[in-house]
Structures are given as structure tokens and as C-alpha cells.
């Protein structure tokens, strides 16, 4: 049987004081997601194995049935695959945010107020001209991405990925100086020194760039800092077809998820107007999923909006994004499958929690509901972090979720 996974990034949460101890999933109007729980089976899923970093890279690897302990070698390399950046075997790639540090030296946000792609392209080009383009004995190259999300590659085999750095979205409000990279081994000292040197030089270039001067004049946050995190080298991964004998497609606005799909041998489907925010093209993603399921065994529909609302600590927006997911993704997919007479398993889940009170990723097991036509439902009649605990799936680990979705033994 075919299968569609609908993933609301960071959708689950912790009890919120402003909601009298309830979560956004508990108060959101989401009848179509609830119907998946009512007709299907539910439980929890440990997407962040112990010892692995919190975040979408590890969690989405787990959702697709890959072992992050074996496959995860940094978020940057996954995004490089999506951006068609070819990495040499000894290159080190890492995510590079354009973001805002306030006048006191604190991290104000991780996205420079979700700077536009056009503005960020000009800034990345300036950094590459002044600091990059592969010159010298320690070459660095910036690769432009979308909005605040970019890539930095250390080329030529001189660098080590064995250093610690901090995802900026988990450290908003911290002092910049307290969250600089540091080496975990002597081999990485040269790399860290080079990165910090580039970081300081970039600060001056970005602060004085006409794009940021215009943003400040317009009352917007400047992208006055480049921030690197999640370094790694090119991973070795089997394709999804090799692992499970199934063809698959991925639909996402986020380079990380697209790159994961490419490395897994999945078809990457681009939807016009998909932004990674609350204004994304929900209907376009639903329509693309219905077309893709006619060609593939599995379609992976990823929606980033709930995660960004959590990082922004915007409770009302997170609730609204859950409702958008329900009405503008889940509903048309369910209706479209029925109209096309396509039998398909439908699964809904987040990859990890992004609690609105902290604005940072958490590692709690996430709620899961899976509806397969013809399979006896359990007693769960609605979808949230608490109700699914009484479901028949219990606590899923490893590749148990994807195997259940695909109808395979585990």
C-alpha cells in the first residue's frame, strides 16, 4: 500500500502557562488530523536517540528510518546536497546563518527577521568577494541559499569538523562571545581559529553593507553577523529504495529536508511559493503530494511553519500554523485520495518539539498517528501529546515508525 507522511516541523510542545497547562495541539482546531487518530493507531516516537543533538537533521533521519548514529555527520552536508554543492571527501561543510546581534552583544534572533533571499544574496556575495572564493592555504567558500539559511564550505583538506558550535535558534538572548565555536581536539584548533577570524571580519563587512544600512533605516533587524553551526563531512547513506524496497518523493521548502531526500535517492519536488514560513503554499504542497503518490510508494510532506513559530515564541501563530496544516494540507490530501480512489496510509507527526516558552528544540518523544485503511483503530480519538500515550503503538524507536507506515515487519 502507498503511504503519505505529513510532518509539521516542531509542532509538538510542552504545557503552556498561557493555555492553562495545555499545548497548542490541544487547543488548535484540527478536525482532519484528529480524524487520522480516530481512524488509526497512535503512540509516541523517539526521534532523537540518546546522545544525538536536538534538531531537524537527526529527527528527520529517524522519521525516514535511518540511524542518525551511523548517518548524521552535520546538517551542512545535507543542505549542500539540496543546493547542488559538490563536496570533496575532505571538505567540511556547515550551516551559515545570517542573523542579528544587538548592541549589547546578545543574539537577538537567528534569522535577521527572516531576511529576504534577495537581500541575503547580496550579503553572501559580499562575504565571498572579501573573505572567500577559495584563496590562500585555508580556503573558505560561501554558498547562497534561501532567506537566512546559507552554507560555508572549508575546502582542500586543511580543516577538521571536530569542533563544537551552537545552533543560534536555541540560544537567542545569549551573549555572542559565550557561544563562539571551540575545538574538541587539537586537530580542530586551526579550523576554529580560521572560523573566528572570518566571523569577526564578516561582522564589519555586514554591518557596513548598504543592504543592512537600508534595513536599519526601515526599522528592521540588520543581518550583521554570519553564524556557523553543525559542521560535517559528506555522509555515506544507502538510498531509501535500497533500505526498504520503496520509491519515495520529498516535498519541502527547507534545504535540509530536500538534501536529506536527495542523499536518500528520493525525488525532490519543488512547489512554487513554498517559503518555510506561515505564508507557505500549503495548497500547492497538497496538490503536489497527490500527484506524487501516483508515481511513488511514499511521499514525505514537510511543513516548516510550526517550527519557526515556536522559535519566535509566537503562541498564536503556532496555533494558527497547526490549523493551516490541518485545513490546507491534511484536508485536501484526504479528500484528494478519496476522489482518486487511491488507498494510502496517512501518518501525521512532528519531528521534534519546539516549545513556544523556550523557543528552542526539545528531545521529547513526539506524538504519532497512522491511519491505514482496513486496520483496526485503537481507542485514541484525537491527536495531541497526551492522548496518543494510550494508543496501541506505545513508544516507537529506530526504524519502527517507517516500517509501520510502509507495512513492513519490525
Structure summarized in a few sentences:
The protein has 410 residues and is an alpha/beta fold.
Describe the structure.
α5 packs across α10. This protein folds into two domains: 2-71 and 237-406, Alkaline Phosphatase, subunit A, CATH 3.40.720; 81-232, no CATH class. Helices cover 34% and strands 19% of the residues. The protein contains 14 helices and 15 strands.
Using brief descriptors, characterize the structure shown.
single chain, 410 residues, alpha/beta, Alkaline Phosphatase, subunit A, 2 domains, 8-stranded mixed sheet, 5-stranded antiparallel sheet, 14 helices, 15 strands, 34% helix, globular
CATH topology of the largest domain: Alkaline Phosphatase, subunit A
Sum up the overall morphology in one term: globular
- Helix proportion: 25-40%
Q: Can you count the beta strands?
A: 15
Q: Average the pLDDT over all residues and give the rounded result.
A: 94
Q: Determine the N-to-C terminus distance.
A: 17 Å
Order of helices and strands: EHHEHHHEEHEEEEHHEHEHEHEHHEEEH
Q: Name the CATH superfamily classification of the largest domain.
A: Alkaline Phosphatase, subunit A
Structural class: alpha/beta
Unreliable segments of 5+ consecutive residues: none
- Give the neighbour order of strands across the main sheet: 11-10-12-1-13-14-2-15
Number of helical elements? 14
Q: Classify the oligomer.
A: single chain
Amino acid at each position: 500500500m502507498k503511504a503519505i507522511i505529513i510532518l509539521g516541523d516542531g509542532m509538538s510542545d510542552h504545557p503552556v502557562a498561557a493555555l492553562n497547562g495545555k499545548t497548542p495541539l490541544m487547543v488548535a482546531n484540527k478536525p482532519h488530523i484528529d480524524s487520522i487518530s480516530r481512524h488509526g493507531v497512535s503512540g509516541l516516537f523517539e526521534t532523537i536517540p540518546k546522545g544525538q543533538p536536538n534538531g531537524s537533521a537527526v529527527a528527520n533521519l529517524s522519521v525516514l528510518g535511518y540511524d542518525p548514529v551511523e548517518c548524521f555527520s552535520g546538517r551542512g552536508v545535507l543542505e549542500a546536497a539540496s543546493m547542488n554543492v559538490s563536496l570533496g571527501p575532505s571538505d567540511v561543510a556547515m550551516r551559515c546563518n545570517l542573523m542579528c546581534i544587538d548592541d549589547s552583544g546578545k543574539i537577538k534572533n537567528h534569522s535577521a527577521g527572516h531576511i529576504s533571499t534577495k537581500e541575503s544574496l547580496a550579503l553572501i556575495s559580499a562575504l565571498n568577494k572579501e573573505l572567500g572564493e577559495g584563496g590562500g592555504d585555508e580556503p573558505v567558500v560561501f554558498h547562497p541559499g534561501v532567506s537566512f539559511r546559507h552554507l560555508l564550505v572549508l575546502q582542500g583538506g586543511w580543516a577538521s569538523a571536530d569542533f563544537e558550535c551552537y545552533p543560534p535558534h536555541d540560544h537567542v538572548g545569549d551573549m555572542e562571545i559565550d557561544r563562539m565555536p571551540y575545538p574538541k581536539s587539537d586537530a580542530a584548533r586551526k579550523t576554529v581559529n580560521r572560523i573566528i577570524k572570518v566571523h569577526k571580519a564578516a561582522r564589519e563587512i555586514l554591518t557596513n553593507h548598504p543592504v543592512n544600512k537600508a534595513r536599519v533605516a526601515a526599522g528592521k533587524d540588520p543581518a550583521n553577523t554570519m553564524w556557523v553551526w553543525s559542521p560535517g563531512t559528506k555522509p555515506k547513506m544507502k538510498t531509501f529504495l535500497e533500505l526498504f524496497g520503496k520509491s519515495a518523493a520529498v516535498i519541502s521548502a527547507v534545504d535540509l529536508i530536500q538534501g536529506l531526500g536527495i542523499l536518500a535517492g528520493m525525488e525532490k519536488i519543488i512547489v512554487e511559493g513554498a517559503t518555510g514560513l506561515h505564508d507557505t503554499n500549503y495548497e500547492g504542497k497538497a496538490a503536489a503530494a497527490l500527484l506524487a503518490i501516483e508515481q511513488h510508494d511514499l511521499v514525505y510532506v514537510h511543513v516548516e511553519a510550526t517550527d519557526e513559530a515556536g522559535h519566535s515564541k509566537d503562541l498564536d501563530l503556532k496555533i494558527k500554523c497547526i490549523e493551516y496544516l490541518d485545513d490546507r494540507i491534511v484536508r485536501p490530501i484526504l479528500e484528494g485520495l478519496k476522489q482518486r480512489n487511491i488507498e494510502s496510509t496517512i501518518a501525521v507527526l512532528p519531528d521534534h518539539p519546539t516549545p513556544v516558552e523556550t523557543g528552542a528544540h526539545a528531545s521529547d518523544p513526539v506524538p504519532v498517528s497512522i491511519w491505514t485503511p482496513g486496520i483496526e483503530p485503537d481507542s485514541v480519538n484525537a491527536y495531541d501529546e497526551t492522548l496518543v500515550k494510550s494508543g496501541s503503538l506505545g513508544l516507537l524507536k529506530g526504524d519502527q515508525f517507517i516500517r509501520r507506515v510502509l507495512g513492513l515487519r519490525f
